[in-house]
Amino acid sequence: MSLYHPSFERDNCGFGLIAQMDGEASHRIVRTAIHGLDRMKHRGGIASDGRTGDGCGLLMQLPVQFFEAIAAENDWHLSRKFAVGMLFLSQDNELAEQAKHILERELERETLSIAGWRKVPINADVLGEIGKASLPQIYQVLINAPIGWREKDLERRLYMARRRLEQQIIDDNDFYVASLSGQVIVYKGLMMPVDLPAFYPDLADIRLKSSICLFHQRFSTNTSPKWPLAQPFRYLAHNGEINTITGNRQWARARAYKFNSPLLPDLQQAAPFVNETGSDSSSLDNMLEMLLSGGMDLYRAMRLLIPPAWQSNPEMDDELKAFYDFNSMHMEPWDGPAGIVMTNGRHAACAVDRNGLRPSRYVITKDRILTLASEVGIWDYSADEVIEKGRVGPGELLVLDTLNGRLYQSFEIDNDLKRRHPYKEWMAKNSQTLTPAEDLASEQHGAGEFTPELLLQYQKLFGYTREELEHVIWVIAKQGEEATGSMGDDTPMAVLSKKSRSLYDYFRQKFAQVTNPHRPLT
């Protein structure tokens, strides 16, 4: 009798991060991340040629010493503060040169200068025929910042330069900026995980060091595999599906005029802030990038985007509920299933949405290596080396700050966030709530303006149904809140109905059912 059963298979993306908690960069972290990525190759798809994957890659701290060595070998001058861009360019040399020229022009507008262009060494022989057919030219650009610029100043101006660049290149489907940052860099593509360091010899160079390394093995569920859609993206890697993506994108577009920051006075030039043609994960990355560029810290940005289930949580204190209530008026949740790992070069974090359907387990070993991934066993360590292990539960956020070597749990982050401003006082002064009828004094109860006969006529005239009266309006009147109901709707679509329907019935919300609902929570 075999212990194997087909129901044990898990056909969703694999993701994770490995970090040295004290911020000490090493090539070991990179090498271990690649090994862990290869261990999760069963979580990705494979094309018919047997060599082309759905996409895999690494997101790591910018290896400063490595690029300083590259600059020295090419006799390029690097300033004290510099950035590196990883670009996918067209195989058409004319289009590629045009993209490079536009980038140079936009960087000059930001008083940034280019130290040099580097054609990234690659070995295309390890690719499958399908991946090789769409292989772009891959270049790195080394960019110098003026003296006196701070790290975040550089990130903001690079963000604006990149957005203007992307808006001008509309006829080149191969063009993509994988990363453009002084904090992080991305290596990714359509290859099998085991072939990633063979395709990018940089990753096998012992001079390439990092203290944080995110990795991702993609299983494409809502888009066809493409080089730009391989993960990680510029800040994060995502396992799952954002089921509210159409609404999130439309709300981002509708609220675009509201986004402003004194740190980015020209932020509106970057609109639209969220793509509507890429994957759901890339759109989430776009929004996170915009929030961080505008000055929001990682803690609040992630709690704003992917909040826990706070509305009916009896164990959550009122101050914290007020924080989430306040945030809910600024942005709708990007609901999953979602498991996310991210880094800005200093922090390494993991967030899980309120449903918790994308498990994320972590282990800390004696040498203070934090390993967090979709599953355990992605690299070999003995049981006596483990000093702590656990999981990121539904709605939780785990953050490692490599600057002080400390791991922050959800309750610590929430306690910090709720004390930053008097959210409860703000909500009490500036919001209106419905009061249930039984909580009002009898003299405050209003008298009906219509006779029962006239009320019935109006209800028929405006299309009220018995179900709406009993299960929606009555609940609002009695409990002062909207009724809880299922996400499904089996009534005929208004346009196909034989009955007169209200104008509002012609507008319907898109909803994607959670995939793999059989998946356990732990």
Automatic annotation (TrEMBL):
Signal peptide: none annotated. Its cofactor is [3Fe-4S] cluster; FMN. Keywords: 3Fe-4S, Amino-acid biosynthesis, Flavoprotein, FMN, Glutamate biosynthesis, Glutamine amidotransferase, Iron, Iron-sulfur, Metal-binding, Oxidoreductase. It holds the Pfam family GATase_2. CDD domains: GltS. Residues 13-403 form the Glutamine amidotransferase type-2 domain. SUPFAM superfamilies: FMN-linked oxidoreductases, N-terminal nucleophile aminohydrolases (Ntn hydrolases). InterPro entries: Aldolase_TIM (IPR013785), ET-N_metabolism_enzyme (IPR050711), GATase_2_dom (IPR017932), Glu_synth_centr_N (IPR006982), Ntn_hydrolases_N (IPR029055). Pathway: Amino-acid biosynthesis. Belongs to the glutamate synthase family. This is Glutamine amidotransferase type-2 domain-containing protein. It comes from Shewanella glacialipiscicola. The lineage of its organism: Bacteria, Pseudomonadati, Pseudomonadota, Gammaproteobacteria, Alteromonadales.
